Amino acid sequence: MVRLFAALSFASLVLGQQVGTNTAEKHPSMPMQVCTAQGSCTKQSTSVVLDSNWRWTHVTTGYTNCYNGNSWNTTACPDGKTCAQNCAIDGADYEKTYGITSPSSGALKLQFVKTNDNGKNIGSRVYLMASDTKYRMFDLLNKEFTFDVDVSKLPCGLNGAVYFSEMDEDGGLSKFPTNKAGAKYGTGYCDSQCPTDIKFINGEANVEGWGGSANDANSGSGKYGTCCAEMDIWEANLDAAAYTPHPCKVTGQTRCEGVDCGNGSDRYSGMCDKDGCDFNSFRMGDQSYYGTGMTVDTSKPFTIVTQFETDDGTDTGNLKQINRFYVQGSKVIPNSVVSVQGMDPVNHISDDFCKQQKEAFGDNNYFATVGGIAQMGKQLTKMVLVLSVWDDHAVSMNWLDSNYPTDGDPSKPGIARGRCDATAGDPKVVEAAHPDAYVIYSNIKLGALNSTFAAN
Q1: Phi and psi dihedrals of 383, rounded to 5?
Q2: Catalytic sites, residue numbers
Q3: At what angle do helices 372-379 and 351-361 cross, to 10 degrees?
Q4: Torsion of CA 305, 42, 378, 194, to 10 degrees
Q5: How many C-beta atoms surround the C-beta of residue 215 within 10 A?
Q6: Annotated domain spans of the chain
Q7: Which residues constitute the signal peptide according to the record (predicted)?
Q8: What pTM value is reported for the model?
Q9: Per-residue model confidence as pLDDT tens digits over 40-75
Q10: DSSP tag of 77
């Protein structure tokens, strides 16, 4: 769907490629477990790192910002390569500046708005690390991924997102000589939206053609985007949730420009499937399944289990379908069943599900054009885990929790995605009304099918 991440709301914190020395970088601990069978799990000492797009960038010889408001410092950054040489990113104070804390072992709390000495930070995005300099890589075929979440303080218009992106293990450090920061400082981001608001791509500043956002004083977009396959495990707030595979034609992080980025009228000509094939229980016909006091009660924490089933039951088989379960109060809750005319009553994502959904909703099946479930499966073997919280400056998160398009008839299949008011996600509204909103992720597990949760 649509993803525009808010950068910090003060001009001094943005992305760069050299490494500064003003603040030491210390990655918050977030251990995970790898399971071979129920009750047989091994702990791994993983941690998280803040995305470089949120960090302070300054000239290497001092404290002058390389980016102000939503404009580049043209003296330091006359072009992309020179900017990468002139600008450094620094370490992060995760709690004080960004509101990123660890309320307990294996848990991570991401606060939506954090007031700090420089103003306010809006949202955040972090990646799971295997070591101090490398991301933790995931191969998801014939496995399940499980985690706990608390969205009780995450209202309409916000998105607590957990997903996988096909990023480089070292953040592009070895591939691009002008990138001196690497994974240790959260570089190398990409996703299926081929975002053009990323300030450094392929070790160069995205200064060419850069223009400031019309509705975000601290964001903009440049000539280039950064594309890769993306598996959205969880995009949600307390009122709506979706999980969505987004395959791409390309393998791994790839810089795009022009038609290949798939923007505007080129949406169905780009490298990646931006729409994806989503399973949102409300949109798929069960409007009493997910929410406060419902089957999956979002007023309380719960566990999310996502299984990647192959056609031959092996780790090298072709991806066949993606299954979803929830566990709450020791009760295993199967995913909701599709109740849409013209669609089979299933509760998983497969090529058949996607084809029927696109036909029922009148949507372009670019998912199939790009390669469908099989292509997604090929790209699930080298993934980086992303954890974030964000608001949507493009379409106010209506694609997730309201009617979308907003002028569409909600009685038409596929238009209604949740109960939220269309104005609730306006960044000016949600940032003012819910600065204390947060999401808590915890208890991350990866394992063989049916190994990471207890069936009742």
Answers
A1: -120, 150
A2: 230, 235
A3: 130
A4: 70
A5: 11
A6: 27-51+93-448
A7: 1-16
A8: 0.95
A9: 999 999 999 999 999 988 899 888 999 888 889 999
A10: -
